[in-house]
Specification:
Blueprint (H helix, E strand, L loop, with lengths): L1 H18 L1 E9 L2 H18 L2 E4 L3 H9 L1 H6 L4 H10 L4 E10 L2 E10 L5 E9 L4 H15 L4 H28 L1 E4 L2 E4 L3 E4 L2 H8 L13 H16 L9 H12 L3 E3 L3 E4 L4 E3 L10 E4 L2 E3 L2
Parallel strand pairs: 1-2, 1-3
Antiparallel strand pairs: 3-4, 4-5, 6-7, 7-13, 8-12, 9-10, 10-11
Amino acid sequence: MKKLLLILLSALSLTAFAQQKKVAVYVTGQQTGINKVLGDQLVSAFAKSGKYIAIERTASFLAELNKEQSYQRTGAVGDNEIARLGEQFGVQLVCVADVSDVFGEKYVSARLIDVESAEVVNTANTSSQMHSMTELLSVTDKITKELTSKTVYERAAEAAAFKKAEEDKEKMLLEGFANGYIKCGNLYAIISYSQVTGGQRYDIASSCRVGGYDDWRIPNVSELNVVKQVCRNLYYNKENYPKISTGQMEQLKKIFDGDSFWVTNSYIIRKNGSSISYSDSSISAKDTFGLILVRDAK
């Protein structure tokens, strides 16, 4: 068993290692000392990130860059050439950083280039007077943190996933409104707003038939708070749900902000969130309350 465990751990380690991308670091500009510190810090940051395997800025890599015609003409080399050389050196990414003098400050910009597509997958920039090693290290720390964070691709994937989730939620909201209820976490809640007397709430719950379900119940305090919070979040993020009508959004607002009191199975809930314990005998026949019914989402 121990031998099998070791084999599995080794396999997982090799898989994680295989997923790490090799990155080369190339620093341009005329700030020799600053360039060296920035380059060393970038190599160290990539190595420590767990996402990359950093190779040193080898003399041969820089020598190959110096051979490029564009470099000989202008002192610079294009991203396509950098990507090609990076591929030649067996790396998947090349980090290109530049240090310039701008208005009495040092401006540091960096970009991470995918050698396969020659596309920039991450960028970072900052500026400082860099009068001390502390300032220089602070700048390099900021640059390296931004470069080793989520790439453009990862952020795009997250944005697409968020958009898909919001679209699914909007579809669910529309279906819920059509059927008379809305999903709130692990609950379905009746979205219609009504005023009832204290004694009516049990009769209404037992006779409720909404959405094809007959197991609606009066919520307890925590369930009511879940419903109110979900409706609040939906309302204040309504720009994500353009297909939900103004009237439907107002129904959501009523649930979390539309009544002085809500009635649960054991409490009257004030609008400000505090609760008052009561018995049925203490409620006048004329006392009315807002009613929400819930059922478990399945």
